[in-house]
Amino acid sequence: MKDEDLRVLFGRRIAQLRKEKGFSQDKLAWHGDMARSFIGEVERGLRNPTLINICKLADALGVKKAELFDLIDNVDETSS
Fold first, then answer.
1. What is the pLDDT, as a whole number, of residue 2?
2. Which of 27, 41, 67, 71 could form a disulfide with 46 if both were Cys (CB 3.0 to 4.6 A apart)?
3. pLDDT value at residue 76
4. Distance between CA atoms of 9 and 77, rounded to whole angstroms?
């Protein structure tokens, strides 16, 4: 899987969890102490967040860090 594909899948997962929580990008950004533009870029697969930002996103969403990668694992299993 290409790096770009992983960024897109990760971004989709963040957007999915954000919507499940009923958060706007602004609200997630505020809870995670990040810029709203950063959240948008992550969700569109344009940014490759650092480990620190991944942890901040998980905390802001109130999920375990591993849950952010559930979508990626499911795609890997079906493409094998």
1. 79
2. 41
3. 46
4. 14
* Per-residue confidence (pLDDT) for residue 78, from 0 to 100: 41
Q: Any idea how long the chain is? A: 80
* HEC sequence for 10-69: HHHHHHHHHHHCCCCHHHHHHHHCCCHHHHHHHHCCCCCCCHHHHHHHHHHHCCCHHHHH
Orientation of helix 36-43 relative to helix 51-61, angle to 10°? 100
Q: Which two tokens stand for residue 75?
A: 């795609």
Mean pLDDT, 10 residues at a time, over the chain (80 residues)? 85 96 98 98 96 98 95 51
d(CA 79, CA 21): 29
Q: Which two tokens stand for residue 27?
A: 């609200």
pTM (predicted TM-score): 0.85
